[in-house]
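Sharing a chain and its predicted structure for anyone who wants a worked example. Both blocks are below, sequence first, tokens second.
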Amino acid sequence: MHATTLDRDGLVRLLEVLEVGLVERTRVLRLSLLAALAGEHTLLIGPPGTAKSALARRIHLAFSDARYFERLLTRFTVPEELFGPLSIRALEEDRYERHTAGFLPEAGVAFIDEVFKANSAILNALLTLLNEREFDNGAGRVRCPLISVVGATNHVPEDEVGEAFFDRFLLRLAVEPVSADGFARLLAGNGRNALAACDAGAPPAVPEDLRLPAAVCDALREAAAAVRLPADVLARLAELRVWLAGQQYYVSDRRWVKIAHLLRVAAASEGRAEVAPWDLGLLPSCIAADEAGRQAVADWLACRLGVREALSPPRLTRVVEAFEAQLKAEREANDLDYDESGRLRFSAISHAETLAGAFSSGIGGGMGSEQASALAGEIGDAKGGAGALRMTYARKRRYGALHVTARTTQIDALLLRIAAYQGEIDAQRGALRAWAAQSLWADPAFVDAAQVQLAHTAAQIESLALRAGMARAGFEALPRLDEAGAMPAPVEHEPLPD
């Protein structure tokens, strides 16, 4: 590990050491460390005996010059247990000060178990300490070296003070008992590792050259400040904010700023100059307060990342359907019959036939067909035998070369757009694979969900390309006129971006 800069390979080795003996806790440990690197706090939510305190102790081991403080809170906990006892000498001099040495105000990393069981006086004092890194000691306010607090709780209260304290934890991570597969591995481990995984036992020995000094953490945060948030990432964050508002889920402006900082730290720790769209996979644990909310945010992100809304399958489907509907209408359209010279074809019908038809339909007041024909004949003879001409509709409409070319040219432009979008989706799938392969903070479940969604989108786009191609072939097969014919108006559809 370099003295003043964060070496990614050294960070990888550090994570490997910290994860020794843990079962199904890699994701929680890594996110807790990322929060600490960003100067943020983590809340672990889960039942007792699920390695929450073990995770906090390991986070402490990542930093070379940070003191560790740990305390279990109850409703009977007094401020002296967290902030230190009152100074007798200061009281004699009419000052209300505490001896903070060895207590939370002088800690670098702290673990506070059952954080919401403390009374409101303690929680209010913690608010300033967690957010501003300052502690009011007597008449003065002192600066605290706090890097990160790892809190633990079984449940989150809904009272006003509890919600304010809850908001101080940027990451909220569920810690559940190990799965059936994890249970087998937990018991199969040796005693030391099994105990460490269950919140007890000696933590792993971290070589001093892998531990992070304060200078490295400061340099990382300076590098993170220069990391760029690209336009597409900002657009997704704005869309997510609107979606959350529609779900009646409030996220404070302060939290959004902290989220952006966390994304930049994640990128900087991996040596990247800008945040990738896939880094937004960190957001579910930053936004939601429970597992259902986290899953809802993760599902929204998996469906939206890597997909351009302007060229989304639903929108492209409506465009393809417009061409299909136009083709259907043109296939079914009747037209006037033309003779070999291209003139309208007429057939003669006599007045007698017309009247006979009318009389036989009842106009003749019940007259028989023979009588009607005879009467019509007499009328026709009286008019000199002149007949009427009528147009015939004996065939489907035919189209000139200009019409067909206009239709196929328009579909060719659509097919080019679809092909370009197919290329975009393929590139996004490759980018996601490359990002996941090098990311230290990626959630495998989120990566899998995003890959499935992109594969589904690619299949939909391929289907639309086939349908558009079939529509093109349909226009090519329309009945033709010998001459060029007229140029039609373009098929109307939703505009597509470049």
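Comments welcome. Residues 97 and 138 are 5 Å apart (CA to CA).
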